[in-house]
Design a protein that fits this description.
Blueprint: E1 4-6, H1 9-20, E2 24-29, E3 32-37, E4 49-55, E5 60-67, H2 69-91, H3 98-136
Antiparallel strand pairs: 1-5, 2-3, 3-4, 4-5
Helix pairs in contact: 1-3, 2-3
Length: 138
């Protein structure tokens, strides 16, 4: 099940407060939102992920997760090269070579990505609900 945030004035106000209070960097447009979590201290840690939300038919933002700009292209190119390398290795009879060079690193990156996805989206929704409750349910 996808996490969603409704597209109304209250929700957009809370999302804007997340940016203004310094929890996230990002932008909000009428049919798309994009957030990057600010980490402390920001000089020492680099955030490589972003949370994106697209407006669906039910007028809600569906939250997704992706790598930031240069890294998303690098990951796709590396995945393509790894698949081509694995196919060529299997054609030449090297059944063992693709496992340590492609399959294991891919699985590690995939599992790490999914864990970060759950963590970042849950942090965003919990912070969103915390601000929503403090602002509108007094």
């Amino acid at each position: 099940m996808k996490e969603t945030i409704s597209n109304n004035k209250k929700s957009l106000n809370i999302l804007n407060k997340l940016i203004l209070n310094g929890f996230y960097d990002g932008n909000i447009s009428p049919n798309r939102i994009e957030f990057e979590r600010k980490k402390f201290p920001s000089i020492l840690s680099v955030n490589q992920y972003r949370i994106i939300g697209f407006l669906n038919d039910e007028n809600k933002f569906e939250l997704g997760f992706d790598f930031k700009f240069p890294l998303n292209i690098v990951v796709k190119v590396a995945l393509g090269i790894g698949i081509i390398f694995s196919i060529i290795s299997l054609m030449y009879g090297n059944w063992v070579t693709p496992i340590p060079l492609f399959v294991l690193p891919f699985l590690i990156i995939y599992i790490n990505f999914n864990l970060k996805k759950r963590k970042e989206i849950s942090l965003l929704t919990s912070k969103f609900l915390e601000l929503y409750k403090s602002e509108y349910e007094t």
